[in-house]
Specification:
By secondary structure, the chain is mainly α. 82% of the residues lie in helices and 0% in strands. It is built from three helices and no strands. Helix 1 packs antiparallel against helix 2 and helix 2 runs antiparallel to helix 3.
Length: 79
């Protein structure tokens, strides 16, 4: 479970960076959103591997998948 916890913490930290974004620079915004999509995918993969044993991992995996999709949608919108 240690890798799962670490990946979840990385995901939360990346989301925190997005929430604190104070200005707009297309290159920085794209890089942070790409990082968020990447870490959400990793977290979703990690939590999915435990989802059948732990309800909180199933919920986390679903949230990570939604966040990954949202990030990818934003990237598409950025062009």
């Amino acid at each position: 479970m240690t890798p799962c916890i670490r990946t979840t913490m990385d995901c939360a930290a990346t989301a925190a960076v997005l929430s604190r974004h104070t200005g707009y620079d297309a290159n920085i915004t794209r890089a942070v959103i790409e990082a968020c999509a990447t870490v959400c995918k990793a977290c979703g993969d990690q939590c999915t591997s435990h989802a059948d044993m732990h309800e909180h991992c199933r919920v986390c995996a679903e949230a990570c998948r939604r966040c990954e999709q949202a990030c990818n949608g934003l990237l598409t919108g950025l062009g």
